[in-house]
Amino acid sequence: MQHTTLSLRHGLLALAVMAVWGSNFVVIRLGLDQFPPFLFAGLRFTFAALPGILLLPRPNVTWLNLAAYGLLIGAGQFGLLFLAMDGHISPGLASLVIQVQVFFTIFFSMARSGERLRGFQIAACLLAVAGIAVIAAHVNGHTTPFGLALVVLAAACWATGNIVAREGQPDNFLAYVVWGSLFSAPPLLVLSLVVDGPGAIGHALSHATLGGWVALAWQSLGNSWFGYASWGFLLARYPSATITPMALLVPVFGMGTAVLWLGEPMPAWKLAAAILVILGLAVSVFYPRLHRAWLIAAP
Hints:
Order of helices and strands: HHHHHHHHHHHHHH
Structural class: mainly alpha
Radius of gyration: 19 Å
Distance between the termini: 30 Å
Number of strands: 0
């Protein structure tokens, strides 16, 4: 039986997952100081897969589905995100912009099913687009048009990966992420070999500090293993309507840790952009539930 109200212990667990996923953008920025982006992403998925595939059974999906998910999330979402964050966009803004994957997921799902956009979805999208437009109007040395475009493309890859995962219907999502990582790591490592070259890869691996390896472990174990295992644990015990709104806290933690840890400035325009994007996300998540509750309560 699923409960509709989070217990204190499970609420704290959900909050911890959001903190890990949100602060992950700062960790990425720190790791990129020591590893080239494609190498860093490739190592992240290598250590997410190994030794995980020896501990978790292969999920009940086809190899083609696993490969598609691994390529979209690995080489697509994180390859592009790491490249963008390597000097082209600040961690706080990256944590915010990547959330437009919610709208890509809605649009792609509707395109496949033939559904039409509803009014609240159009309003939610316009709010988020307005927030992205505010960011685009304030590009500078810390955030470039190229970086912004890369993160939007990463969000589109994430959304497509979401649809692939939904259609695969894996029985264990942590196992799905771990086994999918087998297809994420190789193309990223090949890209690093081609773009960076063996010399740069060898230098990065031999000169990485303890902090660099901790950042990598945070990516592989904290973000993937702890995050997805805990998220799956919570989704098994509570309705999605209770759990999924917690994801709105990811950009809050992302921007907050960027300010506290890296001293990322938070001018008024950035706050306005954050409010617009998060408000758009909130409308897309909460409006259907509020509308349903209103209909039930209406005489």
